[in-house]
Write a structure and sequence with these properties.
2 copies of one chain form a homodimer. By secondary structure, chain A is mainly alpha-helical. Chain A has 11 helices and 3 strands. In chain A, helix 1 crosses helix 3 and helix 4 packs parallel to helix 9. Chain A binds a DNA duplex through helix 2 and helix 3.
Chain lengths: 224, 224
DNA sequence: ACCGGCCATCTTGTATACTAGTACTTGACA
DNA sequence: TGTCAAGTACTAGTATACAAGATGGCCGGT
């Protein structure tokens, strides 16, 4: 388990959750491996309580499985679940961007344009970490401007299945496409073209349909 | 707090969660009221741990708010959140029923028809409890037959905002309409009419747009 | 050699103890 | 009378202790 520093404000539970998610996404905790509440808590210098609460939360979205009196494991990759997460995002974000075309204010659009400009900047500067953050922020902004923050939060929790797959496929080469997708979506919003924006969003998210067989042969044993 | 018996198999946490949800939906825990982990745990004959875990889960969907070192409260009714929950259901169920038109098997359709028949039966017998269960089951079946169980589970967690409002509007007079809606949806699925099924589902769920002002004047102080 | 039962050691679930921070009450003092 | 400070009684967050079930190895008997 790879650890980073604990933020000053965050609670033990939040810290444990952040560490676990990070390590699961980046395969430092490999699919199928056992998780011991005791081990984890001593590694993170916490007691079992906050660690346990984090594990419960992760089990709610099926990324961790808890077997009472037996143990907990990092879930094997279940392609059904990955596709389910992608479907959920596609459907919800499609509807949200369509709605955004109706309700976006000048300020909202300015914010989106600013975000896209920053993406271009960091693409040149090769900061893929920053790019990922901006990508997430872009999508979150759409939910915020349509007053759908709670939905974003719920949807985000299941997205981890999908983030894990994404980190397995070597390259984030699609960064360039990502940015031009975002640009096109903003343009559709400006033009108040709801149907167009929805289609663009669905196409954008369909890029994440990563080839299962390729990954399965590269990482045998990680899949259910 | 109104309590019912604890099932033999369920854990303390599950029991606490079930009790809390029931009491929030049926307004035995009124919006805005304080929740003390200590009080709740002694009422339910549990320790703070499982009760606390249940409260954390409820806070994730905004039906309970936890203020560290100060206390927890049952959230006031926020119509934005209610509408958000309705929107989420409408969008997801619309997409799912459209998909169901493509993939439903004979068995799936038989199951749906059987459910509708039972609804008719219990409508005559005036068992509104059983009707609600069948209603929930109907919707869940659509998610199951399209392999979207995880999405149903997540969506269901936010539906509580919506269930609370529904229990406030006096009558479940719309039972008859509910059943005919369900019948129409099943017919559309049989006819493999995806667009029609989607529209019917959205219309069906729009019935839950309960008049805010009427409730607000009847229950002043329950709203944000 | 093989099978069965006991035991030591894991696991998570729950209960309880402790910590630290908030808010209100009470009472003394200006 | 008004104000401020100490004390008290709450809160949630965390740590730890205990309970109960699952597992696997070991040892003895057949």
């Amino acid at each position: 388990m790879r650890l980073t520093e604990r933020y000053s404000k965050e609670t033990g539970r939040e810290y444990a959750l952040r560490m676990l998610k990070d390590n699961i996404i980046h395969l430092d905790l490999i699919p199928g491996s056992m998780l011991s509440e005791n081990e984890l808590s001593s590694e993170m210098h916490l007691s079992r309580t906050p660690v346990r609460e984090a594990l419960i939360e992760l089990s709610k979205v099926g990324i961790v499985e808890i077997y009472p009196q037996k143990g907990s494991v990092v879930s094997l990759i279940d392609y059904k679940l990955v596709e389910e997460a992608r479907f959920m995002r596609s459907v919800l974000e499609g509807a949200v961007v369509e709605l955004a075309c109706k309700v976006a204010t000048e300020e909202d659009i300015t914010g989106l344009l600013e975000n896209v400009k920053l993406q271009e900047f960091y693409l040149e500067n090769r900061s893929s970490q920053k790019l990922l953050e901006l990508d997430d922020e872009f999508h979150q902004m759409l939910f915020h401007m349509t007053s759908k923050d709670q939905i974003y939060q719920l949807m985000d929790s299941i997205t981890i299945h999908f983030d894990r797959i994404r980190s397995m496929s070597l390259e984030a080469v699609k960064d360039l496409k990502t940015i031009s997708d975002h640009q096109a979506i903003v343009e559709a919003i400006i033009a108040k073209d709801g149907d167009g924006a929805k289609m663009l969003m669905e196409k954008h998210l369909s890029r994440y349909k990563i080839d299962e067989e390729a990954l399965r042969s590269r990482y045998p044993g990680y899949f259910k």
